[in-house]
Amino acid sequence: xxxxxxxxxxxxxxxxxxxxxxxxxxxxxxxxxxxxxxxxxxxxxxxxxxxxxxxxxxxxxxxxxxxxxxxxxxxxxxxxxxxxxxxxxxxxxxxxxxxxxxxxxxxxxxxxxxxxxxxxxxxxxxxxxxxxxxxxxxxxxxxxxxxxxxxxxxxxxxxxxxxxxxxxxxxxxxxxxxxxxxxxxxxxxxxxxxxxxxxxxxxxxxxxxxxxxxxxxxxxxxxx
Length: 224
Fold this sequence. Notes:
By secondary structure, the chain is an alpha/beta fold. The chain has helices at 29-38, 49-54, 58-64, 80-86, 91-101, 119-126, 131-134, 147-152, 157-171, 186-189, 194-207; strands at residues 2-7, 16-22, 44-47, 68-71, 108-110, 135-139, 174-179, 211-212.
C-alpha cells in the first residue's frame, strides 16, 4: 500500500541509521553489497528496471548476500511520477515492469524517482489491486549529501564520506540516501565511486556510535 505521506525514517530511535542505495544495479553495486554483508549490515537497493536489464545477474546476488531489493520504477524519468502522471503517462506500468523482475520480496519497498510524490500519484497507484498490496512506501530519506554531485565534480570518496558523517551526526537518525549508479546521467554514472565511499563512511559512523538497522525497522504510519 502506498501512503500519501512519504516515509523518511525521522522517527527511528536516536543513533539508528538505514543505508539505502538508488538507481542500480551498476558496476559498483556488487562490491558495495559484499562489503556491507561482511560488516553485518543489511542495506536496501532501490532498483531501476532499465538498469536491471543491463546487469540482470547482479540483483539476485545482492539479495543472496542478505540485502533487500526495492522498486525504483522502470525508467527513473526526469520530473518523476507527478510529471509523468500529469502528462498522461502510465505510472502503474512504471512500477509493474520493475516489480515483475523483483519477485520474491514479500513486501516490495518503493522509492519514487527524485523523491517526488503527491496525493494524486498515491491514489493512482493504490487503485491497482495487484500493485498496491505488493508494495510498501514511499520511502524517502533523512540524510542526503548528494554523493552523485561528488562524482560529477571528481571529489575523493573520503571527502564525500566526511560530509555524510557530519550530516549523520547532525540528524542523529534516519534513512541515508546513497547511489550505486546514476540512472539519468551517464557521465556521472561512469564516475561512480560508491564502493569506496561506503568503505570510508561505514567505519566513521561505527566510530561515532551509530547502529545500522534494516529498512524494515522504520516505523510506517500509512496515510491515504
